[in-house]
Design a protein that fits this description.
The protein has 266 residues and is an alpha/beta fold. The chain has three domains: 87 residues, Nucleotidyltransferase, domain 5 (2-Layer Sandwich); 57 residues; 109 residues, Nucleotidyltransferase, domain 5 (2-Layer Sandwich). It is 20% helix and 33% strand. The protein has six helices and twelve strands. The strands form three sheets. It has a five-stranded mixed beta sheet. It has a four-stranded mixed beta sheet with strand order 11-10-9-12, with helices on one face.
Length: 266
């Protein structure tokens, strides 16, 4: 009976597809189920009723693919008094860098200590409203929206040490990719862009990182790759991050395993 009271529905959205998982159960019976996938586009309504099952209450957790986000690393001035002021500064920077108006885009800031760069994520307000409309309660309630990258990042070890050289994560989804550069555990740069399966994508991004941080940077890049994207590897198979090394189980509610699937068939 307890198992049927509450479950967690996890939704991973790319620019054209939705993937659904359920995390439910009690104690040792708690498990993650792969429910299925559906086609969609960012302007379409979401109907999640077919995925609810028989649970009385379901919490909806949304994991946004990089095609639906804009990411950047930004140093928030120490004088910013609170989260609202930091968010206003981030919104202004997004407007300046990408032309993203605050009326259309909502940003969140994971604020870092003074003198370090903070992670900024922006999503379209209309998408958030569409997610809220799909989970009006009481049976289904939206409780979180975050980039898929958050789960992938938590699976990776941190490189520490004051003299550590810059390192990077290149995460390639089915329709977009993200690059995150850090040094000694501190964020240096971050961006996300769509892709169309260009064969030279990985080579191009490695070359760009080499120009920015030195040619030795290539040896400090980890490549997280979605299934079906092996054709983008070129001669860089050795950079591929292994799910066997970084994951403890095959499937995660937050879909982090999606970006450790590139080794299959690579």
């Amino acid at each position: 009976m307890i198992e049927r009271l509450h479950s967690h529905l996890h939704l991973y959205l790319t620019g054209s597809k939705g993937y659904v998982r359920r995390h439910a159960g009690w104690g040792w019976r708690r498990r993650t189920e792969l429910l299925g996938q559906f086609d969609w586009h960012a302007g379409a309504p979401l109907d999640l009723a077919p995925w609810l099952g028989r649970h009385w209450r379901t919490s909806l957790h949304v994991h946004l693919g990089s095609a639906l986000c804009r990411l950047m690393a930004l140093e928030i001035p120490a004088g910013a008094k609170d989260a609202a002021e930091a968010q206003a500064i981030a919104s202004a920077s997004l407007q300046h860098e990408f032309g993203l108006g605050a009326a259309q885009w909502l940003c969140t800031v994971e604020r870092a200590p003074a003198g370090q760069k903070s992670a900024v994520c922006a999503m379209r307000r209309e998408l958030l409203e569409r997610l809220r409309a799909a989970a009006p309660g009481p049976q289904l309630r939206l409780v979180s929206v975050k980039p898929l990258l958050a789960g992938v990042w938590s699976a990776l070890p941190r490189r520490g040490g004051a003299d550590a050289s810059p390192s990077a994560l290149l995460a390639v989804e089915e329709d977009a990719f993200t690059v995150v550069v850090t040094q000694a555990g501190k964020l240096l740069a971050m961006h996300a862009l769509p892709h169309r399966g260009e064969a030279d994508l990985v080579e191009r991004e490695l070359r760009r990182l080499g120009h920015s941080y030195g040619m030795a940077m290539e040896t400090r890049v980890g490549l997280a790759l979605a299934r079906g994207q092996q054709g983008l590897l070129g001669e860089h198979h050795r950079l591929l991050l292994s799910g066997r090394e970084h994951l403890r189980r095959r499937h995660y509610a937050d879909f982090r395993d999606v970006l450790f699937a590139g080794e299959e068939g690579a």
